C-alpha cells in the first residue's frame, strides 16, 4: 500500500468512498490540496532515500503485498470503526512512512506499485504516464538537472519487481479531490467492495 491496492483495486466502494471523497463542489482541505499540487522540491531538498527504495523495489513490493492483505483482512475493523474515523490515524502513519521512503506527496491515489517505487508526483511536471521528452542524456530531469528523472528510476525499479509490467498500464489523471487522503484505506475499501460485488 503506500502503494496501490492489490491489482490496483477496481470500481468504487459505494459507502466508504462516498464518505471519504468530498462531495461535488466541495474542496479538499487547503493544506492537502497545496501539498499535492505543489511542484516537486528542489533536488537539494529531496531526501535520497527514494533512490534506495527504487533499488529495493522487489523487497518493498513483497512487503506491500503483505500489508495490503493485512489491511484487507482488517476491513471489518475499519468498517466497525468507520472508515472516516480511521482516516486520521492511518493517514498520519502513512504520511510518515511514505514521506521517508518515497518523498510521498499524499496525492491520495498511490501508484507506487506500478511505478517501480518511484513516486511520479516528484516529477516537477507531475507526469503520471511516463517521462516527458526532456530527459537529459545522463537520465536526469530537464527542469531540475541534479535530480534523476523520476520516470527513468521508475523503469529501473519496475524491472526489479515481480509485477513490474504494471508500469505499462495507463494511469488515470490525478483526482485532486483525493489529495491528502489515505491511499491505504481507499484501496482497502475499493478492494473490499469489489470482492463483495464478485461474491454477490
Ligand atoms: S504522492 Fe501519491 S503516488 Fe506518490 S507516494 Fe504519495 S500517494 Fe503514492
Written description of the protein model:
- The chain is mostly helical and about 200 residues long.
- About 45% of the residues lie in helices and about 0% in strands.
- The chain is built from eight helices and no strands.
- The chain has helices spanning about 15-20, 30-35, 50-55, 55-75, 75-80, 85-100, 150-160, 185-200.
- α5 (about 75-80) packs across α6 (about 85-100).
- The longest helix is centred in the middle third of the chain and has 20 residues, at about 85-100.
- Residues about 1-30 and about 40-45 have low confidence and may be disordered.
Q: Termini, distance in Å?
A: 26 Å
SS content category: mainly alpha
Largest sheet: none
The radius of gyration is 17 Å
Q: Considering DSSP H and I runs of 4 or more, what fraction of the residues is helical?
A: 40-55%
If you average the pLDDT, what whole number results?
84
Low-confidence stretches: 2-28, 40-44
Tally of strands: 0
**Number of helical stretches of at least 4 residues:** 8
Bound molecules: iron/sulfur cluster
* SSE run: HHHHHHHH
The 3D shape can be described as elongated
Amino acid at each position: 500500500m503506500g502503494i496501490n491496492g492489490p491489482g490496483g483495486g477496481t470500481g468504487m466502494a459505494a459507502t466508504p468512498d462516498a464518505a471519504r471523497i468530498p462531495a461535488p463542489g466541495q474542496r479538499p482541505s487547503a493544506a492537502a490540496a497545496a501539498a499535492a499540487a505543489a511542484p516537486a522540491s528542489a533536488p537539494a531538498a529531496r531526501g535520497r532515500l527514494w533512490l534506495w527504495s527504487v533499488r529495493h523495489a522487489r523487497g518493498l513490493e513483497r512487503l506491500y503485498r503483505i500489508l495490503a492483505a493485512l489491511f484487507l483482512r482488517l476491513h471489518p475493523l475499519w468498517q466497525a470503526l468507520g472508515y472516516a474515523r480511521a482516516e486520521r490515524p492511518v493517514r498520519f502513519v502513512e504520511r510518515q512512512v511514505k514521506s521517508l521512503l518515497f518523498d510521498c506527496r499524499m496525492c491520495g491515489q498511490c501508484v507506487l506499485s506500478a511505478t517501480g517505487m518511484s513516486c511520479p508526483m516528484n516529477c516537477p511536471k507531475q507526469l503520471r504516464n511516463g517521462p516527458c521528452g526532456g530527459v537529459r542524456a545522463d537520465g536526469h530531469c530537464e527542469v531540475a538537472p541534479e535530480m534523476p528523472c523520476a520516470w527513468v528510476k521508475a523503469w529501473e525499479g519496475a524491472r526489479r519487481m515481480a509485477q513490474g509490467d504494471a508500469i505499462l498500464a495507463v494511469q488515470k489523471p490525478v483526482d485532486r479531490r483525493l489529495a491528502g487522503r489515505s491511499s491505504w484505506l481507499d484501496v482497502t475499501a475499493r478492494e473490499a467492495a469489489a470482492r463483495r460485488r464478485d461474491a454477490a
